[in-house]
Amino acid sequence: MCGIVGYVGHGKAKTVILEGLEKLEYRGYDSAGIAVIKDSEIIIEKKKGRLQNLENHLKDIDLDSDIGIGHTRWATHGEPSDKNSHPHYNRDKTIAVVHNGIIENYSLIKKDLKEKGYIFESDTDTEVVAHLLDFLYEGDLFDAVTKMLKVIRGSYALGIIHKDFPKELICTRKDSPLVIGIGNNENFIASDVPAILKHTKNVYFLEDGDIAKISADTIKIFDKTLTPVEREIKVIEWDYEQATKGGYPHFMIKEIFEQPKSIEETLNRRIKNSMPDFSDVLTEEEIKKIDMVHIVACGTAYHAGLQGQFALRKLAKTNSYVEIASEYRYMDPFVTENTLAIFVSQSGETLDTLAALKEAKARGAKTLAITNVVGSTISREADNTIYTMAGPEIAVASTKAYTTQVVMLQLLAIYLAEKKEVMTKTEVKEAINTLYSIPKKIEFTLNESDKIKPISEGLKDKVNGFYIGRGLDFNIALEGSLKMKEISYIHTEAFPAGELKHGSIALIEPGTPVVVIGMQSDLLEKTISNIKELKARGAYIISVGREDCLDLKNVSDSFIGIQDIDDIFSGLLSVIPLQLLSYYTSLSKGIDVDKPRNLAKSVTVE
Ligand code: AGP
Q1: What is the pTM of this model?
Q2: Do 397 and 545 belong to one domain?
Q3: Whole-number Å distance between alpha carbons of 382 and 428
Q4: Is 601 annotated in the active site?
């Protein structure tokens, strides 16, 4: 969602901020803006639409400055428009504010400020922060910010500048991400690391309630009690190049092709002497106590959770259930101290997942995060964290984060199985070997990706479609369908293959595309029967199965063959053609693949 970049240093504010905002475009936004202090004045420029609009507008405007803040806005309060874009001024234009999050009590504050004579230019919740600071300001910006924080409620990451403090940037956060980048005679703030990776790999992750006072050569951090604190400097392992397209036309296709490597790195991180090792997050004693595992996540991460549940049940003989994070905390989840609650989130910032985590913790569960982003809010809130090794995922449509989450959950299941002695050491080693064979098998499919292009050409003008599968294949169908919806805007639904005939088959017409995943050997015959029912009603069948599976191929209009693999790990292979199918369909429809409409990469509102 919204993205913040701030800079204080020497002369480069405009360039650093605009380049940084570009790196945050993946978060999703509908307007962008910048504020700098120049010649003792604050200049704000902002534009509705893509960052490019703002950049075009700024071409002939001299904004060279030592200090500034920038923002990409994803509208919540007030439509996307120039006036609702951030930054926002106070009344005499001495203060500028950028904000990510929601000020929940903004209408009360606004009413009060209006009564005091303040005039509001926008419909946003954020503007109250600028006017409130104005009201509380008595010559010390930091002091005004601390007073303002006592009044506002909600979630926020804030970047603030004042024209009388041209060498000082103030930032603060609560329930919204914000990092401080440590430079050499220059410092940075950003919603996410890729925005500043070009300049530094050394960062502070602020804790909830922290306020920082930043100049070119000092960073002073205070906790919520206003006590000066030393936060640990974290060194980011990601490279700047990983956050660039590296010759690919889109981040999504680059990230699809990175999966063999990211899966291998994820395996390497957790396998010691050919055995999975999670002893740093789960001791044998803790494992013995676990009588239920909850897996909680949103969207694609939820689909990874479904595969995790499958592995926990099948391999580790462990009671487990998966829930959508936005539902979890409202369903009175049954949690005991013997519940292990796992929260899966690429970004580690998804508000629904974070709220569910807090709920599980409050109810006494042992909490474990699986996330891709070091220092993210979810990683800090959970009792323990396991990091996937996907590297930065920029495209809105999640691909490599998903497969690395699945691998991590499967490895964790194997680890539990071994500790619970429901798998022998030999069986564990065999499973590990199978997982290590996956990157090569994915490469096989990637090398054949050209074969998928003509299939997507046939899909591009379709309005509706279905994805079906049985057992684990149904979980993959769900993920394939979500990918297709989010980047090609074709309405698709995923069903267990046996379920369509209970109602939805009424929607099948001649030419309706149905994507079938047929990797569960013991269920294949039944899936093929379902295909026949669909074909009899005119459906166009696109299937994914083992390359030598003639039974499936012969009943399909288009067939995508993948390499052989044990049924239980097959989702890691069968999902790849589905990712490619949605990518090429999106391309053929001329959609902005990496930044599909209405979506944000990191969803930090409920
Ligand atoms: C994936 O393609 C989606 N864009 C979305 O479903 C995403 O997986 C979901 O919002 C969860 O995000 P997270 O993993 O960062 O928590």
Answers
A1: 0.81
A2: no
A3: 28
A4: yes
